[in-house]
Each structure stands twice: as structure tokens, then as C-alpha cells.
User: Fold this.
Amino acid sequence: MSEAVKKEQPNVSVPTVTFTIDGQSVTVPKGTTVLQAARDIGIHIPTFCWHPQLKSVGACRMCYVEVEKMPKLMVSCMLDAMEGMVVYTNSDQVRQGRKAVIEFILINHPLDCPTCDKGGECDLQNLTFAHGFDDSRYDFKKYRFKEDDMTTTFDDKKIGPEIMLNRNRCILCYKCVRANKNAFGEYDLGAFERGNITQIDAVPGGEVNNPFSGNLVEICPVGALTNSDWRYKIRVWLTQTTPSICNFTSSGTNCTFYKEDHQNKIFRVTSRENESIDNGWIPDITRYGYQIINSPDRLQTPLIRKDGKQVKATWDEAIDYIAKKYTEIKESVGGVCIGGLISPSLDNRSLYSFSKMIRTVCKSNNIDFRGDYRMLPSSPDSPFGVLRSQPFSISAIDDSDVIVSFGSDLIHEHPNEYLRIRKAYNNTNPKIYSIMPYAVKSADVANIEYVYNPGTDESAVNAICLAAIEENVVDSALANDYLKKVLPSTLKDAVALCGLDEKDLRVLARSIADGKNITFLIGEIVTRSKSRDAISAALLNMNKLFGISSKGQISILARYANSKGAEKLGLLPDPIAPIKEILKKNFNGYPESEPRNTDEMMAHIRKEEIKGLFVFGSNPMMLYPDKEFIKESLDKLDFLVACDLFETETTESADVVLPLSGWAEYEGDYINLESICQTAKQAVKPNTDSKPAFEIIRLIAEKLEKSNFDSESLDKELADCLAVNTVIQFPDDFIEMKPQTEEIIDEYTLPIFIIDDAHHSGYLTEKSPSLNNFSAEAYLMMSEELAAKNNMKNGDSIRVESIVSKVILPVKISQSLDSDVLLVPRNFQSSPVTSLFMRKRRVDRVKISKVDA
Amino acid sequence: MILTERSITKIKEKAVRYPRKKSAILPALTVAYRQVGHVDEEIYKEISKIIDVPMVEIAEAATFYTMFPKKPRGKYLLQVCNNISCALRGSDSMIQHLENKLDIKLGETTADNKFSLIAVECLGSCSTAPMVQVNLDYHENLDAQKLDTLIDDLKAKKD
Amino acid sequence: MHYSPVITNADIAAKDENLHLFQYVEDPKQCEIDTFVSRGGYKAWKKVLDSISREDLIETIKKSGLRGRGGAGFPTGLKWSFVPKDSPKARYLCCNADESEPGTCKDRVIMERDPHSIIEGMAIGSYAIGCHLMFIYIRGEFTHCIEKMEKAMEEAYAKGHLGKNIYGSGYDLDMIVHTGGGAYICGEETALLNSIEGERGQSRMRPPFPAIEGLYACPTIVNNVESLAAVPHIINRGAEWYASLGTEKSKGTKLFSLSGHVNRPGNFEVPLGFNLKDMIYSPDYGGGMLGDVPLKGVIPGGASTPMLLPDMIDVALDYESLQEKDSMLGSGAIIVFNENTCIVWVIKKLIHFFRHESCGKCTPCREGTGWLEQMINRIEAGQGQTGDLEKIEEVCGNILGRTICPLGDAAVMPIQSALRLYRDEWQYHIDHKKCMVKSNFEFK
Ligand SMILES: Cc1cc2nc3c(=O)[nH]c(=O)nc-3n(C[C@H](O)[C@H](O)[C@H](O)COP(=O)(O)O)c2cc1C
Ligand code: SF4
Ligand code: FES
Assistant:
């Protein structure tokens, strides 16, 4: 339940106070500040240092109010409303007070509004206009940072890849530093010196480059912090805004696009607060990800392979060609010889029409949206499917007393959820635990961080269960059942396998057992694992033993902008029965053929049973483990149609390449990980000769003389799918566990994991110059100890060898990692790290050596 | 490492006594300053490791206080209180006296790096004014003769 | 053994049992625990642990009329009683030994010469609020005080006055000597707490008051050195005895630091209500004006208190009497200046201090003190302009009562008083572009 809803129906048991603001009587819960109460009834009290998501500090003194019987002006942001209080927000005294504050702030302010990018949306500018003097009484030379440097007229200091600081404009509201530390848990920005020469700056010797850094610019009430992205490009009043959502986070971060109509160009993205999802903070991927839309590298026109070379073509030619080739293959090979892969970041309409095309035109169940998970299971009600289908609410984190994150590098995978947990950490101080095969920064909010041996995920889960049984904190009948059906083992044995600390596990078991409102979220370590079903089974057993789902939520989180939509709209090879029912009805029948997932499709391509493949917005060559395997498979195809925003390794192999529109170029709906449907409005017209996927599919279908691929028909049909409750019931019984082990081969001993860089997501964001300013190439991340052991320094070139392949990567030392594991980001085409990984291994292992200069 | 084993041990001993890690920032800075004579980025970094607190917090605290200069100063730091009680007792002209004697201006360091002269706020020696703090030691109730002896003695001191 | 060469009235105190704070301060052995104990030290602490309940203890302090000696004069017992009795959180006691207010140098004398009396007072205060870890926050520059306090603390631990299960009572008490880094603002109680927490020493808004949410967000009491040092004596000799000293409303004795143009600057313990004029002129105290240059004015309670003209100094040194003169007792730092002193120059020194020490958190203090300093410097330099005085007054008005902590008030109150009391001299400065008198204090 969102807080907005909560406020409308105040809990009767919450004590309230009634008092008067400007003659209006208001009743608010005890503990509400006068400022908040005034805002709630639409009375605007000006502020600089107050922020709804931060603890008030009362620094700027702009929010003065006059209170009867109180001799001094009071700062309303820190004044709790009290019974019978009589408050004036606009008395003479209050106005005088504000005027004085503005005057103080302006004495050392450069008043360089004409060249300041904040102009037009600057709190100081606006409040000076509203409350200030029209002339300055300060007749001294203003204090200037960087005055001695005659080459610059402004104090322009680059303090981060995307942040410029102008200390002269800073009004020392300390919002940036407070947000950075408290809301984001980042320590790369600080306030230094004291008194009137206090200055905000990056940490000495460092820069502000955390994954939430763009928010600092947005909350700066003046032009002290600006981002390089937006500087000197356009004045804000010349732009128009469009509400949108992020295409790179699965929560569907709400944001606003700023575009200029005549140029048909997006200039920036800011937050668009949606309390239930994002609290007004957006990660940098959301903020700067839009730049891929403007990229000059966009595919401009369709391409057709002629004599081995891809040449430009018109849409008509391309569609004709696809229809012709398609018919040829169909006629010559027959049977179910076509498959389709699509990205779970595309909108509902596109996803649904893709499913419709593959299933009704190609009559095939060779369809999948998961181009990056190894060895996928195909059955939707597998243990993994069950956990994956469970509902999840972001705002429920606020009220959780126990929060467990299992197998998730939260900051990289789910930045909004991380911030939400952080908020709980700051406000209600729940018990937080992080369980991972390697240490992660997001565990900084955790009471205990559990790091188990890579590949022993089930043992780690079992150990929690056994700890609970030994601690006697779970139902004894269930405990006996568990010991009988699942694992007749002791905590000691489980601990020996997973390497966790027994005492810590007992603490965790107790907390989960005592928890009244639990959030248990599960991340990509499980989803990407070949053994995801075994781990999920262990988690389901745990859920049954503790009854977690009956007192909170437990779910494997969706990872992409529309993963949930893809599941609901039948993009799985074998959707759950109720979805299948609807598809059958909508499609007037349903293909009989075997359902085949990505992995199986590749196998059948190699067996030359699948001859043609449609790839829409996906790049399995870069994302799927075993790059060579995928490449060989794709090379075997007779016909490959690849549709994307950019040229990729996959489009390079294609016979027809079609330019795809980005999510900002058309209106689309997306289902977020909470199963909430949100709309990204069209911000600009397509920049290139590109089209949205559903439009392309309509053209192909119509060419093949199929109808009802128009938007109206699609929308009508897909609405039924969305209405289906896709939550799969938990199994009644415990699931038996089979021990899984994996041998270590020769000297390949170091476990290696794929991650997303904190400033990238998938393979597209590499086209955002701003995001590349944070990080533009792959690296080999390791702990300080491991680096020292191998005599490696930041930046050293390292040869990373797995059984199948080798790549050379520079070292990046991580402060949070502390065990002997390696991490590599999958986001950079220049270093296709997936070639190191194997589909059939659970934990990949490599050896490393320094490349001699 | 700039900090010696001894300093590190001292910092750790102090740190464990506090209920929270961050509280060890000031004690650590004090130990570091006493060993090194100034506290800069490198030392922030070392302290950050020793007490496990983000470096920015160390730097923020260090720059807030006046006792942790970022740059090295002379061997003897002469800190003359120039606040009201001392000023009423002639600290302004005592500063001039020192400037002449050492041939430097306020805020400067002698060429041989032996003396730095700065003016500071009240050092709590108001009833024994004027005064100068030389490194850690207070010298109070000064007159020209006492001050000259003090400086001459320091000058004569071999390292 | 280092001692500050400060003059005290210990010789009088040695003969007058009521002057308990200074009774033994001239004896170097008083620092040593055995001497301290032989003179009745730690007796009160033992008595408290043996036989006094927390409630009775607080009641006793309330009855004694002891008020905070750090500047605000808030009743100590009442402050202690604000600590919630049923809070499950830890509680802390912090002894404020930051002593940085210009003119004030009294706490230093106790730390240097009678450190155990502070520890004993802190211990009793800790017990009163249920604290098991107490801090003394000493300004970093006070190297010798720090050494003395640390040594005293070690002795106290060694002899079982601190540590686990003290005197077999089951009560545990630990102590930390925390040292500052050079910031006046850290004497302000909330900034002091931030400083102990490792934050920048900026003040916090109240409420929440430290007694409810202080150090590490736990109930915390901050008391001045002198306030705490008086506590054992109250326990030993009774609340009635203490209340019999001083005046009707200002009870007990107080340390005064006398500085500036007097013959005998020093620290003197006197009962509250002592006459200021006597303090300056009596041979046992200030011993009259230096070089017999006539008095021009007095700052009676530390740099942040409003000034008094010569015809106002026949006044009792207590909280109420000074208030009647529109000034304050403050920390008891009496700064005396003679007729050769330019008032603008005095204010220039003071505003420089407050500007330098502003923590930079709230706008009026951070920006206002800087502006005031520039205007006052300009006047002092003979470049004052018509309207400057009015502007200064207005800026002062925009700071007074508008800041998070009292530093803003402290910065403007002396200015306001100087403008009120010496208006002509300011005007002269502006009109004639020079001082009426030249403050050229020779250093010989
Ligand atoms: C700017 C400022 C500086 C202060 N400095 C000191 C100080 O150095 N020592 C002190 O004991 N109190 C100082 N105080 C007063 C403290 O805030 C606090 O009131 C006092 O320590 C409480 O102790 P008491 O009740 O025993 O007086 C200062 C207050 C302000 C506003
Ligand atoms: S940089 Fe902006 S947000 Fe940060 S303190 Fe200055 S004005 Fe506030
Ligand atoms: S908003 Fe209240 S003081 Fe800044």
C-alpha cells in the first residue's frame, strides 16, 4: 500500500493533533511537522534545505513561520505540530525573516543567472523574485572561490564524470551531501572547511561517480551542481516534458523526458516521483540512458544481405524479402522450422504481436524472451517458475521488519529496491540480511552479510533451515518432515559445505522465524544459474518451513523493464495454462509443436531443424553464456532477421537487419516487477527510419496476408492476458533435494561471475556517452587481497582464461569484495566476456595471469 | 604507510573504546597530527583503513577543525592568541615583535623551516595573557624578555 | 609538573571552607589520587553508590540550587531529571571541557590542578542518569589538561573508582577522554555531541533535546566542568549547605576568570552575588586597573555577553543582577578594558572570532557574521560610511534569535550592546574616519 493511500485513511489508533495554519484548522498525526501539514493543505512554505526524503536539519532558515505565544520565528521543517498551536506562514514578521535569509544567501552569490543552467528552475531565483529585496545592500567584494585563477570567470569544477560544481553558487543547504550519504549510502562527496568558506567537493583525490549521482544535481536548489549532459545546451523554458518510465530497471522508474519539438531531440531526463516505486530518486542509468535514442550510431535504414554484404534497403524491400525468404523456407523445409527471440524490455504490444506472429504465422512454440540465462528450464511451474511468479511490492519494504536479499547484487540489479531498503534502514531500522556468493556493496545496510562458497547456493539455504530447526524456532512437525523428506543432515554438515558461520546462521534463522512482516527477495545469482531449479526448490522448502509467504513476500525479482509483461503475454515457450487458454482463444488455436527455449532453439538450429530465426531487440551473442556456441548456431541458420537500435554482433550475422525504435519514440506499456502496468509516452518522433517492433511485425504479417495485427486488435487481445493472475501456488509438500556438485578442472579455480556495471544495463547503454563517462570498458573486478596476492594493481592487463576461451581485461579493485572471486561486466561489446562462460557449468572458473608489458 | 606502528596501535586502542567506529576520527587525527605535524590526503586514507570509516568522513571532520593543517609547517609552530583578552595585553604588538625577530610575516615559515608563526583564537589563557603556544606547550604571562629568551633557546636547540 | 602560571585566590579558599572548588588547587599533590582521597576525595562517590537512590540524588542536586556553569545557568538537577527513566537505550554523560569562550580560563585550572574532583562529579552525575560510559570533551589545545585528566582517569581505574563493579556495588562505569580539534562551536552541547560522534562539529536543532536524544541518539547529559566539580561537595556537605552560599536565586560559588586591564588577572572563586567592582578593584582580586588608567567598560560573562559601562559595575555577580543590567553572567569571564581601548577595535576582535568559529550550518550566522565583520573592519579602518551603523543593527537583528544554536546570538549581543552604550564613539569613527582612542597595547 502506498503512503498516499495510508494518509487518506488515518489509522484510528494514531494520535492526532489539531491546530491552526493561517486560520485553517488542520488535524494531522502526532509528529507531523508544521511544514508537512501546511503542504498537505496546499500552503506552500518556501524551503532550501528541506527534502521530503531526508531528515530535516533546519539549516537554511527559509521555512520560518510565526507561532502565537512563541517569541521567535520558528523553522517549520523541524517544528512538530502541537495541539492548539496557531501558526502564520505569511505574516509581516515571517516575510521579513525570509527576506533576510535571501539577503544573507545572496551576499556572496555571483548572481550569474544569465549563464546558469539552473535558470528558470532555480529555487533561489524564484524565491528571490518572490521574497527578496530588489537591490543589494552588500557593498563588499564577494567571496570568490578560484578567484586567483584568471583563466576562468566561473568556478567550474568537474567533480565527477557528469557533475560540475560551482562553489560560488552553492548556498550550503547540504542536501547533496546528506542525500548522498543517507539516501544512497555513498561516500564520494563531502562538505569541507567550515563557516562561510565551507565548500562542497568530491572526496579528496576522488570523484563523484556513484550510480545515483545524477540525483544530486537534481536536488541542488541552485546551479551549484549541474550535469555536463545538460549544461549550455538549452534553456529549460524552451523544452517540453513528457512523462515516461525507465527502460533499464525492472521497477519502471518514473521519469520525465525534456525534449525540444523543433529539433525532435531529447535533452535530459529527470525524476518524476512515484512514491510507491521510486521516492523521487532515479539511478543514473535512468537519467542518462535516454542518450542512446540520440546516438549517431543508430541503425538508419533496413539492411539486406546481398552477395554476403549488408546493403541499404527500403522498408518495402526488406519486408518483401523477409516474406519471400520465409515462404521459401516454410515450403522447402516444412514443419516447425522458425523460431523467435525477443527482448523483455520491449512494450506489451510488441511482445504480444511477436508471440502472435510466431504462434499463428510460424505455428511454432520456438519462442523465448530470455536470451541471457543459461540452460533455461521450460516448464513454467518448475520451482523456479513458482518463485518467479510470486507477487512483490516495493513499498511493502517500508513496513518490513525483516528484509533478506538472497543472491542479488542489489545496486546493480535493482537500484530502486536498494534505495528503498536503505530508506527502511534509516527510518524504521528493520533487520536486514544479505546472502551472496560474494560480498557486495549493497550489504552496507545489512546487519549481517552472509557470503557462501560459490556454487553452494542450496547448501546455504539448507543451512538456514537447519539452523532454524536446531534453534527450535519453527514448527516441530514441519521440522521433522523437513529432516525426513528434504535433508537428514545437521547444521554442521551444511555449514561445512557452504562455508557460512554457524552462529550467524542461527541469528538469521531466528530473525526470519520471529519476523512479522518479511521481505525476502531473490536475485540474478539464482536466475542466471544453471541450477536455478535446485536453488529454488531449496528456497521453496525454506518458505514452507518458515511460512515466509504467509507473513510477507518472497519472490525472485524480474530483471528487465517488461519481464513480467513477457511472462504474462505468452513469450515463454510454454506459458502457464490460463495464459495458454487465452492465447488459444485469441489465436483461434494454438501450435502443437514442442515448446523450445533459447538453449533448445540453438540446439535445434545446429541440428538444422530450425532454419529461420527472428531476433527482436536482443543480442544473444553478447548476453548468452558460451558466445562461440551461439555464434556457431546462428551461422548455421538459413535466414536470420535481426531487429535492433544498433549494429550488434547478432545483426552482423543477419540476413535482414531492421532499425528498431527506442522506447522514447513511441507510446508503450510495460509491466514492472510489481506487475503494475505503466505507460511510457512518446517523447519524440523516431529519429531514424526506424519503427517499433509491433509495427514491423504488422508489416510482415500483412505481407503474409495475415490480419488483426493492428494496434487496436492487439490491445484488445492482450488485455485478457494481463488480467490473468499468473501467481503459481506454492507446492504443498517439501521438495526432495538432490546433491549437486561440480568438479573443478585443473588450474581453473577462480570463480567468476557476470555482473552489470553499476552504470550500464544489458548491451544498449554502451551507446550513452554520459554513462560511458562513468565506465566505458570491461574490467576484471577483484578484491584488494586477491590483487595483492597476484601482485596486480588497478589497471594492470590481465589474461583471463577459462577452459573455452580467454580475454584480456584491466584490473579494477573493489572495496566491497573480500573473497577470491572475479566479477566481469557484460555490457561492453569491445570485450565479449560471455565467451569465457559455459552454458553447462554452474559456476565458471578461470585462471588469471598478468600480461607482460 | 606514513603512520608508524606505534601510532596505529594507539589509534586502534582508542578506537575500540567507543561505541561507534566514527567516533575514532578525532582521536585518530590527533594521533596522526602529533606524529606527522600535518594531516593530508594520504593520512586521511590511512586513517580510513585503520578505523574502517569512509575517507570522506575523515576529510570532512579534519578540515572542520583548525588543528589539523594540510601542509607541513615549521619545526616550531608559534601560535599567538590574538583574541580580546590577549589583545588587551598587547598580543598585536607581540606578533609584530615576533615578525621582526624571525623576519617573517604572520602565516609564514622561516627559510630554515624552523619556525612558523600564526595567530589563533582564544586558547584559554586569558588571565595569563599574552601567550604563545609552541607546538603543544603553553608559554604565558609573556613579556619581551621572556619571549626573546624562549625564541633564542629554541633557535639554539639542535635537532 | 606543568601548571599554568595563573593567579588564583586559593590562599583565601584554603581558609574558607565554603570555597570548595579552589580549596586545594595550589597544592601540586592534589592531582595525585592518594592526596585527593586523603582529603575526602571519592567519598561522595562511594556514598552515592552505597546508599543513595537515583531519585534522591537528583532531588539533592535540585535542592542545592546548582545551576550550570557553562554559560546558560540551567538548573543541573532539573536537567538530569529530564533523562527518561524507562528508555531502553544507553545513556551518556559528557563533561564539557571545551572552554573556548574568549575570556574564560577557569575549567582549565580545575583540570590541571584537581582532575579527580571532575571525575568524581562526572561519576555521580552518571549514576544519577544511569550512564555507564561517560566522556570528558577537552579542547585539543589543552595538552596539559589532557595529560592530567588521562593520568587521573588511569589512577581512578587502577584504584577501583571506575571500571566494573565499583566498590562492589555492581555498578559499572567507563570513561573516555575525548579531545577536540580546535573549534569553539564544539563547546555548544549539540555540536559537542556531533564532534564525539565523529561528525563535523555543527550544532543540531533542538528539539530533540540531548536529554532525550543526544549522543548516538541516546539520552545524554552535557555539563560543564565546574558544574560537575561542585557535585561531590554537595553530596558530602548537603544541599542545604550549598544552597546557603550565594544569593537567593543564584546559589553556591562560582569561578570567575578576570582578564584584561587589571593588575591581577586570574581565576577567583567567590560566592555568587560577589560585587563586580570589588572583583576588579579589591587587592585580593583584580587589584585595580592596570597602570591606573580609568575603566572604560567590562564584559562580564565571556565574549558573548553584553558590556557594562563603568557606572554599571557596582553590581552583584549573579544570574539575576546581571540580567537586570541587560547583560549575563555567562561563563563568568570578566574582561576589563581601560580608556585607551577603542570600542570598535574590541568589537572587531570579537566579531572576527565569531565569524571564524561559525560552524557554517545555518544561513544567518554563517553569512551574517561575515558581513558584520566586513562592516566593522571597514569602520575600524576609518572607511565607515553613513548608514553603516544602522545596517549593522539591522543585520544583527536578522541574526538574533534566528539561528540553530546560540552562537549567532553570542556574536551579535556584544555588538548590539557596544552600539547602544558607546554610540558616540562609533559615530566619531565614521565621521572622523579614525579612532577616538588608539588601542595600541604595548608589549614590553
Ligand atoms: C557557542 C557556544 C559555546 C559554548 N562553549 C561552552 C564551553 O566551552 N564550555 C561549556 O561548559 N559550555 C559551553 N557552552 C554551553 C553548552 O552548550 C552547555 O550549555 C553547557 O555545557 C551545559 O553545561 P552546564 O549546564 O553545566 O552549564 C557553549 C554554548 C555555546 C552556544
Ligand atoms: S551544492 Fe547545491 S545541493 Fe549541495 S549544498 Fe550547495 S546548494 Fe545545496
Ligand atoms: S527548510 Fe527549514 S530550515 Fe531549511
Observations:
- Chain A has five domains: 2-90, 139-293, 313-373+569-574+590-600+615-634+698-711+718-724, 393-556, 750-850.
- The longest strand of chain A covers residues 806-814.
- The pocket of iron/sulfur cluster (ligand 2) is lined by residues A 170-176, 200, 220-222, 224-225 (CB under 6 Å).
- The first helix of chain A runs from residue 3 to 8.
